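Run log, item B.
One chain of 107 residues. Sequence copied directly from the ordering sheet:
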Amino acid sequence: MVIEILKDGHRIRLPGRRFGPDVLMFLTYGQTIVSYSQGKAIRAADLARHLEIPRETARRHLHHLVELGLLDQEGKTFRPARRVKQMLGLDKAVREIKQAAVAVGLL
């Protein structure tokens, strides 16, 4: 089931590309989205530690995602591209999650 969910997401975000060769790049993209939803931009070194891959591999995947228009780079950090944030409603979702966390005393 997890693989099917990943494949569906891959088809939407990276149409016309093969899942197998892109699976690590797609996980890179997913981790960037998760980090952004937690209020953090991601760096290649952080991503490499989290996914347990070489830093250069993480950097290469991040830069490729920038070329594809899915991520924006700001110095050494990466965030979802503006069009991706709008498409996913990330800014609104992150705001609502933070408001809820404040309301229940978590932040």
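Observations after the first pass:
- Residues 2-81 form a domain with the Arc Repressor Mutant, subunit A fold (CATH 1.10.10.10).
- Helices lie at 2-13, 19-37, 44-51, 55-67, 82-88, 90-103.
Flagged for discussion on Thursday.
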